[in-house]
Amino acid sequence: MTAGGPKAVVLSPTFYSHFNPLLVLASALQRAGAEVVVGCGQAFAAQVEAADMRFIPLDISRNANVGIAQQTEQARAEAARLEAFFHATREGPIATLMLQSRHRQDDMLSDPHRLRREIAALDADERPDFYIIDQLSYAVTLALTCLQLPFVTFCPGHPTYIPTGGELFGVPYRWPQEIIPTKEALAVLRAVATETDQRFTRIFNNIIATHAPDVAPVDSAFRVASSQARVFMYPEFDHLQRASDDVENIFMGYSFTPEPLPSKWQVRLAGTLPGAPTVLITLGTFLSARDDVLVHCIEGVIDYDPQAKVIVSAGANADRLSRWRSESVVVASFVPQKALLAHVDMVIHHGGNNSFTETLFHGKPMLILPFSSDQFAIAHDAQSYGLAEVLDPNVFDHAALGDRLHRLLVPERSASLARWQKHVRSRGPDYAAGRLLAVAIGH
pLDDT digits over 144-198, tens only? Predict the structure, then answer.
């Protein structure tokens, strides 16, 4: 351990929604007295250096998303896979989750031999006390397991991304009431997810046997995580506690820095009529590609209240939605979501964990339209705790959307929101950093 405090190396994939929370946690560790170095793709070098941390170039995956997925330069094969994903979301959750499961190896376990070599060289140069890694960067987990280096697992999504008990990675542990697949469809999905788990596990164990024969083989690659500390960027809901005598499980609640609203957005929000709601529609950096859903949401909000102010994060589809622009409808390719949340009355989003935790931090009611990944599990939890309403993004009509908006905007919704907003705000990156440093010093 260095004289001034422990040294941590944070390794992040080149994905906007993963990198940002990790950088916020890294900054909190630095404020708490640790020396922090960040390794990720070159696209985020400027952000690392602006945060007064040293940048190390390290490409963890073949594909990337630096803000708007469709506008991020991708290799031809990766771009084709992205289009296949968007097509699958139109078919529904089972088709989407099955496609994601089949794509896992390319997404999450690319170049494991190269990464092991590069991380070994990085470790020889840096000699950190511990690493902080993204749970979904399985090639990094595998490399550190083979090299027997201490690491902390940062879980950027739903806590079941580290499966326990009967949970199976790639299959939502629970579903929202509006989206419950048939038993037959679930059986097919579980079969595909099981095959993916077995394939990943074979790769893990083959590489472990070759490069670290003294390390025990793993039972399931998707369950491999830190034996010291695991950080969940999620509220500590009662039914999700990951109790363990050996591992420090840290529910940090959120990982972002609130931002002031830029002056040009203050102008855009001006003129809202008294009593009319301001609604933010955001489907994340990937799913803003579903312009049909964005249009359906715009129409539904206007149909519910023609006086409403509507703000739409449209990604690469902003120009295609330009016909909707007006004094009351703001359409932009990118919106300052973290700043806007304090100024809106409710949020329509896809159930991504960043959007969920940021909205909860600000105590805003939310309508969740889940498409993929852990969004169904997050939608279930938010619905169960009275924090959100849910609709199937592929089948809802204006009447259903209006009904959900009415439910969300009534005062009775505020009690549960206020309770969990207080819980989330009591945690955060500084809380997690303090807990992590206690673990690092203890080891």
Answer: 999 999 999 999 999 999 999 899 999 999 999 999 999 999 999 999 999 999 9
What does each C-alpha distance from 431 to 49, 52, 109, 170 come to in angstroms? 23, 21, 31, 30
Give the C-alpha separation, 199 to 201, whole Å: 5
**For 252-291, where are the E strands, in sequence order?**
278-282
Question: What whole-number distance in Å separates Cα of residue 212 and Cα of residue 384?
Answer: 44
- The two tokens of residue 322 are 């330009």
Q: Say whether pLDDT at 382 is over 60.
A: yes
- At 262, list the tokens: 């830029």
Give the CA count within 13 Å in the CB-facing half-sphere of 441: 13
Q: Is the pTM of this model over 0.85?
A: yes
Positive or negative, the CA dihedral 184, 186, 192, 197 is negative
- CA 419 to each of CA 106, 111, 139, 428: distance values in angstroms, whole numbers, following the listed order: 41, 44, 38, 16
320 to 70, 102, 295: CA distances (angstroms) = 14, 31, 10
Summarize pLDDT for 80-111 with one digit per residue, the tens: 888 899 999 999 999 999 999 988 866 678 78
The pLDDT value given to residue 148: 97
Task: Please give the domain boundaries of the chain with CATH numbers for all domains.
Answer: 7-255+428-442 (3.40.50.2000), 263-425 (3.40.50.2000)
In the prediction, which pLDDT does 63 show?
53
Q: Report yes or no: 226 and 234 within 8 Å, Cβ to Cβ.
A: no
